Amino acid sequence: MKINQFAYVPTPHHQIVKELANSRFLSARTQKMADPVMLYRALLLKFFMEKRQSRAVRIQKVTNLMATATLNAYDYTTTQSIVTKTAFYNVALQLLGFQVGLDFELDHPFAAMAQFKLPIANVDDQLSREQLVDAWYRLLNTRTKFGQTLIDYLAGEGYYAQFYDDQNLNRPLFFNGKAQAVFDTSSLISDVVYVEAPLDTDHDGQRDLLKAEIIRPANTEDGLKVPTVFTASPYDQGTNDEAADKLTHDVNHPLSRKQPNQLTYEDIQASDEQPKLPAPRKVNGDTDVAEETFVKTWTYSLNDYFLARGFAVVYSSGVGTKDSDGVRTTGTRAETLSATAIIEWLHGDRTAFTNRTDQIGIKAWWSNGNVGMTGRSYLGTLSTAAAMTGVAGLKTAVVEAGISNYYDYYRENGLVVAPGGFQGEDTDVLGELTFSREQSAADYLKIKDTWLDQLKKLTSGQDRDTGNYNSFWDARNLLKHVNIKCDMLLVHGLNDWNVKLSHVWNLRNRLKKEAITQKLILHQGQHEYLNNFRSVDYTDLVNLWLSNKLYDVQNNANDILPDVLVQDNAEPETWHTYQDWGNPSADTYSLSDSRFTNLNENNVFSDHLDDDLFKNYVKDTAKWQRALFNKSHTKMDKHAIQLISEPLKKDLIVDGQAKLTLSAASSETIGLLSAALVDYGKAKRLTAVPQILAAQKIITGYNWRKDNLREFTFEKKASTYKKFTDAHMNMQNRQNSYRVDDLKPGQYYTVELAFQPTFWRLLAGHQLGIIIYATDMDYTIRGNQDITYTIALDESKLEIPFLPSDANAK
Amino acid sequence: MKINQFAYVPTPHHQIVKELANSRFLSARTQKMADPVMLYRALLLKFFMEKRQSRAVRIQKVTNLMATATLNAYDYTTTQSIVTKTAFYNVALQLLGFQVGLDFELDHPFAAMAQFKLPIANVDDQLSREQLVDAWYRLLNTRTKFGQTLIDYLAGEGYYAQFYDDQNLNRPLFFNGKAQAVFDTSSLISDVVYVEAPLDTDHDGQRDLLKAEIIRPANTEDGLKVPTVFTASPYDQGTNDEAADKLTHDVNHPLSRKQPNQLTYEDIQASDEQPKLPAPRKVNGDTDVAEETFVKTWTYSLNDYFLARGFAVVYSSGVGTKDSDGVRTTGTRAETLSATAIIEWLHGDRTAFTNRTDQIGIKAWWSNGNVGMTGRSYLGTLSTAAAMTGVAGLKTAVVEAGISNYYDYYRENGLVVAPGGFQGEDTDVLGELTFSREQSAADYLKIKDTWLDQLKKLTSGQDRDTGNYNSFWDARNLLKHVNIKCDMLLVHGLNDWNVKLSHVWNLRNRLKKEAITQKLILHQGQHEYLNNFRSVDYTDLVNLWLSNKLYDVQNNANDILPDVLVQDNAEPETWHTYQDWGNPSADTYSLSDSRFTNLNENNVFSDHLDDDLFKNYVKDTAKWQRALFNKSHTKMDKHAIQLISEPLKKDLIVDGQAKLTLSAASSETIGLLSAALVDYGKAKRLTAVPQILAAQKIITGYNWRKDNLREFTFEKKASTYKKFTDAHMNMQNRQNSYRVDDLKPGQYYTVELAFQPTFWRLLAGHQLGIIIYATDMDYTIRGNQDITYTIALDESKLEIPFLPSDANAK
Predict the structure, then answer these.
(1) How far is CA A262 from the centre of its chain?
(2) CB–CB contact A291 B54 (8 Å)
């Protein structure tokens, strides 16, 4: 167990005293106490909530804690004249949920604390009054055994709730730079408004009204202005799973030869011309009172956490979703404007109405004008898209696993390449999935023809026949127009094969040119949220970040948050900080280098499988993957080139984007190439999916949302390999993804395959594998065509960036 | 998709009118409306909550629904002069969450309704005013696409919350015999009290104080008396997982010969003599106000559901748990009294204190004296135990997967046989697991010696050396003393290999002798809760039951609830009702019957495996199970007898307890026999674990606990077999579990193995398999001894009870 912490703000004593007073840990009386022991007793008794429980009960609870091997904490404070460091941390560990005898021993708490990576305040063996105050503050800002700071745990127990009636308590209240759960979530107000977007995507001659769902603290009714955490989720109003499934494309068809072209980027560049907009609706008066309310089923638990802490939360789904106007466009500017329209309303720059018919205006009068966006996947994509517009009011986006270019989501180097787990999906399928207007029968009747027409445009525009980049895709490159004005927190899973690493890599590199602050967190998940893990204080980091960006709290968030925080793949619960991601220089290896063993002793492979085997692999792609990567002989031996390095003498970390340059020939006029880098070595690896350590253990506020505590742990059994990056290419697109060249059978061409960027530790003793193959059952189309590929290994090379051993990991 | 419903109470029109008025669907004005169309419009507008949303918004929402292929529901009510049955059910299906085009078509809603098993009111093609009222009531009491009744869904949306300020609304409110979510869960009150139990299990000369945690509606402060849903959970204050793991017994050791005995039951009968009790504490005054409060992480979502509906919920963990006195005893009367003491306090018959030190008494002044128990596994076990005492106040227990005899949990026929998934667990391990006083360092210091002493007594008493039934186990047979006075609802999973089916079977059969009402639900889960499944209205059934038992609502619960409700194993979402479980007569088959193929052509098998294979199977018992049961040849061929029937000509349902009578010889003076009945046939089978259909989709009250909607669905791949029952025996215990006989090598003995009772449909074309083996890697000790077993197949027989084809399944 490792309780890492990155969001703690070093705080001077005078500020600590002020914050402890503001949070009611120090009173006028206890601030005057000179005796550390008396003060210690007072603090312990306050911990058990004097306004909610009797003194006898609180004394009993302090009595349950051991300060030394023989004295309980209460007796300690009544019989001893000093507070020793050991006693303080013995009690501290128990308050943090650690168990005597199981997690630590009373005679040496510091050994356990070091092991759990828990902070120890800089105090003497006997704590002075000031040291006690400082150590208590540090303790409240230390994370418990169950993944929350102690003060957040206490808030869940009702610590702040006991002051709900205290008008003098600051609301919002910040403690160590982070907003506290001082808001009563039982009185949250839920409003619906309809924002009039500068769009008419359904071409009905009226601007598209977009439904926005607002949850805000009741204190806003008394004049408090709050910032907004905004999640733009096209899934939020429901999804058409079955209809989308039906649209899913068959991928078991042959690769076709493409007519060569001479296209340049200018030829396929998307026009920036925008359609003419209808005039805005007339506003028939104004009101401050919403007339529609709502209840949500799924909510993002991180957003819920902020609802207890003085933030409003807004959900909106955008064009083409239930109760809104318009049609889905899958990734265009119209979807971006769906998100920015909401932000503009929150910032006072756009009209919203109380309902869809009466045109009564309603302002976000409760908003302080500052907005931060959150959400993963499509939600994160829309955060990125909104941020790139520079829309006023948007102060930051926390982008989790967002797309930065739709072409890279559905295509790769002129080839149809699926997001992992979604073979056959494309922009039309995603459009259908999220077009939740379909779920309202009467509304769908009105829009059906327009929608079917729009669907056809998506299907034709995406052009699965060629897989080429074209103006359709160019209009869906979110990095094309960058006018960003807000700071960015990017979060991505190093095992995310759905939204792959190139998205965050390209976004981050593009943002380096901008005058903003950006931070990056790379975790070991696939396509996961990160706000309920024990080994990283992600929630606290986001709190620090949003308190800074949206409430202008001077908490040094830009300095405190590591520039790059990476979870180690080879050791559980281990996180490293770096200044950057991606070593610009790389080591180069010829593929005929004698340090690589050619396992199948071939440089030729056929992409054709026996019909039965092919069908079997289509049915069970995991079986195909095992056969492909396994070092022992399998049915895939003749269908791939498998190069395996010598065992590594020391740990090596692949840091960034590796590149494979192949001199390759196809036996036909068509060809596709796939390549993977594989970490070979028998080892326990982290679970693919986070495990639940304790169900419902995280309480995000008093009587508020519970969350499961989760972590990646080691799999029970060791595995022998793991693919950590891959690449795919249509050989006709060897220049770029829109330019098509001829492919002459038997002729060698130099092709360059850029792997998905990564950050991957190969342990000493492990071997690096380079696997070269063609059809990728999980990602590419699967034609099972009779094509033979030949690679001139001595004309081919791998360039791979390793983290220098003196890099600033901590 | 099948939306089954068993908890609807047929209700006459005059009662319907009254209930709709009480629940505010009919007002003084609408009750007078003669025109069905006007009334229909009024009801639809009320559905969208007139007190919370403007008329314009509500009209918009009604406008979103289609009544016919061309008319939306609002226009329908303004342009039509009649309400047709088709229009009504078109709209009804949309209100229930079904989607036009996807789930049903507007021109024939009834086809979909039949398919989904949705009820249709008995109305004419044109609804009269009365029929409209009746159909609307039936609709509100119909289950949605997402597993709740429509009225419960509406409550989650805030329907009843709009009347929180209405003092005239009945609280509690019953609708169709079920308590409604009319209580504001944001103002629930949480109290801790310490009940003084008639126990001194830690022998400290003071009666054991037991902590009880109470959650009750705020309305109790204004004089409302409410019943209590009580869950006695020894896990609730935390568990010592690591310490328990360390105590877990090694099972890889040889079976030893037991000295024969002549014991009769009288010899091993447990004494009923009880230890002398210390006098109760002096009561130093009384108060109505608790002085300790609490926050819970895990709660049972079914209990939470009742908190919104006018029930208090109490959790208590019993002797030896954190903040209580005493030691764990794993299944004795002391644990039973831990539960009944709480009930006695709730019924006004026992003292509780406000804290552990001051002896200030506090009564359950808010309680109406009626208590129902809930909970699964150990929790259900304690419900059974409490019910058997006849304690006053306990009106019913809903027992989910409860133990009825601890011997049957840890032993079987003189053999150490583990609960599934818990090899090596025993009463000492469970005691250690639940002895949460250990988590409080100071408290543990005081009790440690007493506890280690008690642990030793558990270890010695359970006697793993022989596996025999003895007075230790006799004291843990919950069916020994039966003084039951309350009605029982028993719930068990037909795939529960942890608490096996014999527990509910024996309990149910014993209860048949008592003058109580009992009901049984058998589902296809392992060890699962059932309150959030789409295919069965379990929550509603329990609501009907508890409203009847605890609020004395005359809702015919005893007649409405089926006596036996069984989920089909061969078809998803299918439930059948029966009058009884277990056919008393059985078909008998000789094991040499020619209709059985002896797959390995043997009647002899060795229990000894090569060392490597043995270790491999110990590591991966699933692999062992596959080898054992697979019909193709495997390494287990010489280690089992595999008899496979002819393919069945028609479906057969095994209904109750099958029995195998073997004429068997061991080559040694020791011997153990295992047997399994296996359903052979390639088929898709239900998932072992319920799948989440929709996360957080169930809202149990307004702004209240969310729950995942779940269901067992078909596995994606077909499987070829499934074990559906088994049995184990020590051959020295062929008479019974305490009497030990000699075993002479080579001599044939008649032994009778009673299988776990079951209810299992074998589909036509499938084959019944009888597998006879010795060591069961998953359950028995694993000695890998060199023993050969011989079965005289023509002297052996299977007796198997089948459900008669004319049984009253619906």
Answers:
(1) 39
(2) yes
Annotated catalytic sites of A, by residue?
A: 377, 496, 527
What whole-number distance in Å separates Cα of residue A343 and Cα of residue A392? 8
Average pLDDT over residues A426-453: 97
Chains A, B: CB contacts within 8 A come to 136
If one counts every other C-beta atom within 10 angstroms of the C-beta of residue B173, the result is 20
Residue for token pair 């730079």: A177
Check A445 against B66: CB less than 8 A apart: yes
Calculate how close chain B gets to A428, using CA atoms only, in Å: 18
The per-residue pLDDT of chain A, averaged, comes to 97
Altogether, the residues listed in chain B come to a count of 810
Residue B610, H or E segment: none
Q: At what angle do helices B129-140 and B85-95 cross, to 10 degrees?
A: 20
CA nearest to A492, candidates A235, A759, A700: A759
Beta bridge partners of B196: B209
Over residues B451-461, mean pLDDT: 98
Cβ-Cβ contacts under 8 Å for B17 (sequence gap 6 or more): B26, B31, B133
Q: How far is B660 from chain A (nearest CA, A)?
A: 38
Using only C-alpha atoms, what is the Rg of chain A? 29
- What is the maximum span of chain A, computed from C-alpha positions, in angstroms? 91
DSSP B597: E
Going by pLDDT thresholds of 50, 70 and 90, the confidence category of residue A810 is very low
CA A78 to mean position of chain CA atoms: 49
Task: Give me the residue from B156, B298, B438 closest to A295, CB to CB.
Answer: B156
Q: Which value, to the nearest 10 degrees, does the dihedral of the CA atoms of residues A662, A666, A671, A673 take?
A: -30
Mean pLDDT of chain B: 97
User: How is residue A284 written in tokens?
Assistant: 């028939």
Whole-model pTM: value is 0.96
Helices (H) and strands (E) in chain B, counts: 23, 32
SS3 at position A651: coil
Return d(Cα A603, Cα A589) in angstroms, integer: 16
pLDDT in tens, B507-533: 999 999 999 999 999 999 999 999 999
Positions of E strands within B345-405: 352-353, 361-362, 367-373, 394-400
Select from B283, B305, B294 the least CA-distant residue to B196: B283
Q: Could you tell me which residues are beta bridge partners of residue B730?
A: B672
Residue B768, φ and ψ in degrees, nearest 5: -90, 130
Parallel, antiparallel, or unpaired: how do β-strands A758-762 and A797-800 relate? Answer: unpaired
Task: Chain B: give the shortest CA distance to residue A799, in Å.
Answer: 42
Do B696 and A356 lie within an 8 Å CB cutoff? no
Residues of chain A neighbouring B63 (CB-CB closer than 8 A): 442
Cβ neighbors of A389 (< 8 A, separation 6 or more) are A336, A340, A481, A483
Is B527 an annotated catalytic residue? yes
pLDDT of residue B804: 87
* Strand ranges (E), A126-243: 174-175, 178-179, 189-196, 209-216, 226-232
Q: Which residue of B has its CA nearest to A99?
A: B439
Half-sphere exposure of A368 (CA within 13 A, CB side): 23
Of all residues in chain A, what percent carry a pLDDT higher than 90?
A: 99
d(CA A226, CA A371): 10
Q: What is the DSSP letter of B805?
A: T
pLDDT digits (tens, 9 = 90+) for A171-204: 999 999 999 999 999 999 999 999 999 999 999 9
pLDDT digits (tens, 9 = 90+) for B679-710: 999 999 999 999 999 999 999 999 999 999 99
> Which residues in chain B are closer than 8 Å to A295, comparing Cβ atoms?
156-158, 699, 702-703
- What's the first-to-final CA gap in chain B, in angstroms? 18
Residue A683 to residue A696: CA distance in whole angstroms: 31
Residue A808 has what pLDDT?
56
